[in-house]
């Protein structure tokens, strides 16, 4: 039976360093412990919060329930052929360490996703993405435990309904499954994705024939370190808002009013607006409100320098949403999950 800890401060378990307290906290390292934890919470009718690295959630308040911290470890070569390797990874593995491991093993596909904080098990929840690659590009399948029954189920890419920072686990199956393993389909041959302008710029000094996945990973790490605050020094949850997607007429209306609007055309005729540009233009970059702040260089990142309760960060986020809505008629959606 895993150890259930009462009155547990979650400050070290969320990258916003919010000092919320959980009534109960348990770390699990395998499926048996997870099943026991679910049964234990079920007997006491406790609400659950599944926690990986805590890098994509806001703890609005104390949590009156059981926090299940996923710490399972392990990587298994599930299948291989001449071109690909299917690597099955336990949900509690650290994402960036996995990226480093795959590069060292000569398995490619994760390099653009270097240095994203958090756990492997959380990666499918919002279909993590960066620098032109998303998890769904390398995803094969996942195993998840149904909370209600304790049964393990396999989800294919199709059944995960992946979208931009989205999956079925944020929608129809929200709070119903705990991901226990993720299988990735990795290439033995480098297939560099260099669509992202900032990445090409960072790599421009290297001749094309000398580019390797390792060099792409190094470039991604360098860009991220220069642009994003390290949560260890400045508490934050990465991008706080999704880039809003608008249709053609809406884009035409906006670009006519704001010729320097930053937007990216999508394959389906829609446009993805740079939320950072909207927030910056609404005058929020570098501002503080009751202790929570908008990062000085990256308007998409809200910081919590005073390690205040999550409600302070959410109050700032609410003001930003309102003012962007008023100025541009565009609704920003928060990226991190909010609890309770
Ligand atoms: C500095 C910084 C930079 C970031 N950059 C990026 C980026 O470039 N791209 C990007 O996509 N994201 C980015 N993020 C967000 C974050 O890193 C990812 O969303 C990551 O996948 C979250 O992992 P986690 O383990 O910390 O999840 P947590 O914050 O612990 O959990 C997030 C959500 O997933 C659920 N969850 C966690 N594990 C499981 C599981 N095993 N089963 C079921 N549900 C689970 C939680 O209940 C919660 O709802 C960034 C965050 C920070 C702080």
TrEMBL record:
<dbReference type="GO" id="GO:0005829">
    <property type="term" value="C:cytosol"/>
</dbReference>
<keyword id="KW-0961">Cell wall biogenesis/degradation</keyword>
<dbReference type="GO" id="GO:0071949">
    <property type="term" value="F:FAD binding"/>
</dbReference>
<keyword id="KW-0133">Cell shape</keyword>
<dbReference type="InterPro" id="IPR036318">
    <property type="entry name" value="FAD-bd_PCMH-like_sf"/>
</dbReference>
<dbReference type="GO" id="GO:0051301">
    <property type="term" value="P:cell division"/>
</dbReference>
<keyword id="KW-0132">Cell division</keyword>
<keyword id="KW-0521">NADP</keyword>
<comment type="pathway">
    <text>Cell wall biogenesis; peptidoglycan biosynthesis.</text>
</comment>
<dbReference type="GO" id="GO:0009252">
    <property type="term" value="P:peptidoglycan biosynthetic process"/>
</dbReference>
<feature type="active site">
    <location>
        <position position="335"/>
    </location>
</feature>
<keyword id="KW-0274">FAD</keyword>
<keyword id="KW-0285">Flavoprotein</keyword>
<dbReference type="GO" id="GO:0008762">
    <property type="term" value="F:UDP-N-acetylmuramate dehydrogenase activity"/>
</dbReference>
<protein>
    <recommendedName>
        <fullName>UDP-N-acetylenolpyruvoylglucosamine reductase</fullName>
        <ecNumber>1.3.1.98</ecNumber>
    </recommendedName>
</protein>
<dbReference type="InterPro" id="IPR003170">
    <property type="entry name" value="MurB"/>
</dbReference>
<dbReference type="InterPro" id="IPR016167">
    <property type="entry name" value="FAD-bd_PCMH_sub1"/>
</dbReference>
<dbReference type="InterPro" id="IPR011601">
    <property type="entry name" value="MurB_C"/>
</dbReference>
<dbReference type="GO" id="GO:0071555">
    <property type="term" value="P:cell wall organization"/>
</dbReference>
<dbReference type="Pfam" id="PF02873">
    <property type="entry name" value="MurB_C"/>
</dbReference>
<comment type="similarity">
    <text>Belongs to the MurB family.</text>
</comment>
<feature type="active site" description="Proton donor">
    <location>
        <position position="239"/>
    </location>
</feature>
<feature type="domain" description="FAD-binding PCMH-type">
    <location>
        <begin position="17"/>
        <end position="189"/>
    </location>
</feature>
<dbReference type="InterPro" id="IPR016166">
    <property type="entry name" value="FAD-bd_PCMH"/>
</dbReference>
<feature type="active site">
    <location>
        <position position="165"/>
    </location>
</feature>
<keyword id="KW-0573">Peptidoglycan synthesis</keyword>
<comment type="function">
    <text>Cell wall formation.</text>
</comment>
<dbReference type="Pfam" id="PF01565">
    <property type="entry name" value="FAD_binding_4"/>
</dbReference>
<keyword id="KW-0131">Cell cycle</keyword>
<dbReference type="InterPro" id="IPR016169">
    <property type="entry name" value="FAD-bd_PCMH_sub2"/>
</dbReference>
<dbReference type="InterPro" id="IPR006094">
    <property type="entry name" value="Oxid_FAD_bind_N"/>
</dbReference>
<keyword id="KW-0560">Oxidoreductase</keyword>
<dbReference type="InterPro" id="IPR036635">
    <property type="entry name" value="MurB_C_sf"/>
</dbReference>
<dbReference type="GO" id="GO:0008360">
    <property type="term" value="P:regulation of cell shape"/>
</dbReference>
<keyword id="KW-0963">Cytoplasm</keyword>
């Amino acid at each position: 039976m895993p150890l259930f800890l009462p009155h547990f401060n979650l400050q070290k378990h969320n990258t916003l360093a919010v000092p919320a307290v959980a009534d109960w906290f348990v770390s699990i390292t395998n499926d048996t412990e997870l099943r026991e934890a679910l049964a234990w919470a079920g007997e006491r009718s406790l609400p659950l919060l599944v926690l990986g690295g805590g890098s994509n959630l806001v703890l609005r308040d104390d949590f009156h329930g059981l926090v299940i911290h996923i710490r399972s470890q392990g990587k298994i070569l599930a299948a291989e052929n001449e071109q690909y390797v299917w690597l099955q990874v336990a949900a509690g593995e650290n994402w960036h360490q996995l990226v480093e491991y795959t590069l060292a093993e000569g398995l490619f596909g994760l390099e653009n996703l270097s240095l994203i904080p958090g756990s492997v098990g959380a990666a499918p929840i919002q279909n993590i993405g960066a620098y032109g690659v998303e998890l769904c590009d390398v995803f094969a399948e996942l195993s998840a435990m149904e909370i209600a029954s304790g049964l393990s189920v396999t989800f294919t890419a199709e059944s995960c309904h992946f979208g931009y920072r989205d999956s079925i686990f944020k929608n129809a199956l929200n709070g119903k499954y705990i991901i226990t393993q993720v299988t990735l389909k990795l290439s033995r041959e480098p297939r560099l994705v260099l669509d992202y302008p900032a990445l090409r710029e960072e790599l421009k000094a290297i001749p094309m024939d000398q580019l390797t996945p390792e060099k792409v990973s190094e470039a991604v790490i360098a860009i991220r370190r220069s642009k994003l605050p390290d949560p260890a020094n400045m508490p934050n949850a990465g991008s706080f808002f999704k880039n809003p997607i608008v249709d053609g007429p809406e884009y035409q209306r906006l670009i006519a009013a704001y010729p320097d609007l930053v937007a990216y055309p999508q394959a389906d005729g829609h446009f993805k607006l740079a939320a950072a540009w909207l927030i910056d233009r609404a005058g929020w970059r570098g501002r503080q409100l009751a202790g929570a702040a908008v990062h000085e260089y990256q308007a998409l990142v809200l910081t919590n320098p005073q390690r205040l309760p999550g409600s302070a960060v959410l109050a700032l986020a609410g003001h930003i949403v309102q003012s962007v809505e008023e100025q541009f008629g565009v609704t920003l959606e928060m990226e991190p999950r909010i609890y309770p």
